[in-house]
Amino acid sequence: VCGNYATGELCDICADERRRNGQICVVRDPRDVAAIERMHDFHGSYHVLHGTLSPMDGIGPDQLRIKELLARLEGVDEVVIATNPDVEGEATAVYLWRLLSPMGIRVSRIAHGVPVGGDLEYTDDVTLQKAMEGRRIME
Please, are residues 78 and 114 in contact by the beta-carbon 8 Å criterion? Predict the structure, then answer.
């Protein structure tokens, strides 16, 4: 259903009734599901695209599992886009945002920026720019 690895019809996450809370996290590949699951903080379901948009490589929306995502949106309040912060990941995120937001579904994007434990003097300009754009008020 989600595109994650499974030994049966459903992966363990899709089979867990407690995970159906109106959130779907969209990722590039099953390794990304495993990475997010390691933090034990996301309790929604996933959708694996099995790639990202890359027109230079001939990968368009029809080569990804976007139609399958659209078929899963009933009862979904939020789609969290968790693609990598590279050119292809950003293009995929923007494409999905433009596709889903007119449907009245909240579309969010994971934050990008300086990693915990990172040194600013060794952080590249793009990462620092994303960190500044994604800053939040301290409460």
Answer: no
